[in-house]
Amino acid sequence: MELILQVLALEPTSQIFAKEPIVPFAILLVVILVVPILFERLQLPGLVGLLVSGVVLGPYGWNLLHTESAMMPVLSNIGLVYLMFVAGLEIDIQQFRRTKNQSLGFGSLSFLVPLVVGTFIGRFFDFEWNSSILIGSLFASHTLLAYPILSRLGVVNNEAISVSIGASIVTDLAALLVLAICVAIKDGSFSFGRLMTLITLLTLYSIVVLVGFDWAGKQFFRRSGDEEGNQFLFVLLCVFLATVGAQLIGVEKIVGAFLAGLAVNETVGEGPVKEKVVFVGSVLFIPIFFVNVGLLVNVPAFLQSIDTLELTFFIIIGLVASKFIAAYLVKLIYRYNWQETLTMWSLSVPQVGATLGATIMGYQAKLLDDRILSSVIVLMLITSTLGLFITSRVAVGLTNSGMKDIGTVNLTYQNQEENDSSYSIVVPVHNPQTQQHLIEMAALLARQSHGRIIPLAIATAFAHMDAPQLDASVQRSHRLLAKATALSKVLGVEAEPLLRIDDAFAQGISRASREQKASLIIMGWGKRTGFKARLFGNVIDNVLWASHCPVAVTRLVESPKKFQRILVPLENLMTPSLQPVKFAQILADANQAQVTVLNVCERRTSSSKIAWRRSQLSLLISRLALQNPPEIQIIPHENTAQAILQAARLYDLVVLPFIRNRTVPGGLAISDVTTQLAKQLTCSIVMLGEPQRTQDIIVQTEVTSSTTAAMSEGIV
């Protein structure tokens, strides 16, 4: 009531918000929920939207939010700590160990060269030596924003990419240590003895965190079993204990947060605890931190200051050039080719996590001024866009290291468990309108594979098992299963209906499929809009993320028994993309239909190269040992999606592959081409995704590096 009276009394808005901290928190929640979605629909990163929101709502905009309020500093500092912790948690330690020598080499060069260039720029603009060195260290780190692109292309196991991932550990750690030293000596009382004392404390502290927390985490996780809540709290305790420890020895808290992420990295693994930890940070605290950074930016002053614009220009050019020099030196030392060198350079260009965190800490310590803060934010936006753009262009066609030394792997959909059990297809039934087509498709596949169908109905659980709502849900499920069983009998396929009571549909589907040792899950998808924003909806998204076997998400506009022509577009020629060919051919054999494998290359590709690509693609497909090999078609075109859309007009079904990756935000990596196709195709669609473990096995084939590199030349 008091707040309403203040509004009616026409008090200034800023005074009202200052008295009621819950109001700016509500505004923050609205911003975090709405703004990223709007920016992503505009094909812009949600991160940019959060920064822009901070600028617009801050003291230099509408003056609705303030950095000095009681709430913002606490939440923003937690977000900063969380950001650095997640940066350490997401690093692949195993991959670093495999290429540690090269990673140390590239990491050292990628740190030292930008450090020298950045220090020179700082001195050129009259910053003190301490501040100039800190500016140089801001250049050194890099953020692996392009990992989803690399995962989609199937080249994450390439040595150059593994080295770039490993180098991020070196550059981030070194940059944070420089930050710690610069802040510690900012008062001017620098001495060699104090420096050695600080380095000694840092070394001992790092050993305690990296070794002690790792050991304690493994012991706690082993003894706590499946108590995810306690494990989650233990991880958070490690983060903030490391943060407090860093401050006790006189270094910045983000150093401790990053080390804590590295320490519990292997303990947490890729399980549900990591998912919960990352979820809490990425949904609430980290977005608040980015909004708070936007509050600090004075856009009018930035645009009016020629000196700031010049500094920003030199910082951007210096960063991009120094990273290229480092990548070129690594090329000379380790003899990488130009494509690998440019990929390493593009991966080291984006500056987000460690750079922004160190900038904020330096700004708060009065080592960096408003000019540097504004310049770094512009640097972050430009390098993120530039790095992703270059990676998407130059990483196409890279080969996976180790392919020459690994024997042939059978490219089938069978999991290890399927060797001892029949081919089982789980069909979740919920919508009576799509149920018949799903059962028909499952029947065709099961009959061809001599398998069985498991119609699955999920009844939502309630606290009391005698609840009337549960009885109604169970009865409805029985009706759906009876209809599915009758339809399967008509189609001549064995059906084993299954009713499961579970807390959630996706959870019930994933668990039941695992219990039944399912070989494939077939689900329906009725929506044709909002694909990129919602990605099939929550239920399908969660099943795709959690399931142990391949998942076929279908949009069927006619009966699968009528499919006579099936198209399988391959966006790239890496081996994992051949899995949809196997799926399509099984379905085609059941209908005596024809499968066409389509690959789109650049329009300027010569006829001889097209013929060679066709022969190499035939060789790869021959590894599937299909009784009726598909037709192969190579189309030169400047736009991959448009070429596929034009070709799809003559087909009844299009099978689209996509990557399921549990190590990237959101769990799924859908290419832009696949997104566009799913929106515009008018025929039936099957989106086929496989578990990450299957992809890791499949990618290890006997295809030589030289062959695959030549095949991939000119791919869009």
Can you walk me through this structure?
This protein has about 725 residues and is α/β, with parallel strands linked by helices. The chain contains 31 helices and eleven strands. Strands 1, 2, 3, 4, 5, 6, 7, 8, 9, 10 and 11 form an eleven-stranded mixed sheet that branches. β7, α27 (about 605-620) and β8 form a beta-alpha-beta unit. α10 (about 160-185) packs parallel to α18 (about 340-350), α17 (about 305-335) packs antiparallel against α18 and α21 packs across α22. The protein is globular and about 85 Å long. The N and C termini lie far apart (about 60 Å). About 45% of the residues are buried. Belongs to the monovalent cation:proton antiporter 2 (CPA2) transporter (TC 2.A.37) family. It is found in: Membrane. It is a multi-pass membrane protein. InterPro entries: Cation/H_exchanger_TM, Na+/solute_symporter_sf, UspA. This is Sodium:proton antiporter.
Task: Write a concise synopsis of the structure shown.
This protein has 716 residues and is of the alpha/beta class. It is 62% helix and 9% strand.
